[in-house]
Amino acid sequence: MAARPKVDPAKTRDAVSAIAGWLRDETSPAPQRADLANAVRLTARTLAELAPGASVEVRIPPFVAVQCVSGPRHTRGTPPNVVETDARTWLLVATGQLGFDEAAASGVLALSGSRVCEIEHWLPLLRLAP
To answer: What is the pTM of this model?
Structure first.
């Protein structure tokens, strides 16, 4: 299997900027599914590049799941360390609009495993321009 090309930071910023209005104001019209998917995939893959490894799996269904954080590699069955959330919550956390701890405490960020909080070290991935 060929290696996935590196994520272009400019493309990631552009993808998130394209849906920034909806991230800032949930009552704004929802973005097109393709635009939302692009922003989610690029930010998740950015995290995987910044925190290479396979000890934590970050799932944002139905768009993407990535493995990240160095440590013991998981290869079969349900990983022991999983972060799972919806697309909007992921993007709010990835852009610093919602804190990792706040999202986890409110239950919109599902965490299982002893190493899941390690991804917080790399968040936010980018900040939205005011």
So the answer is: 0.93
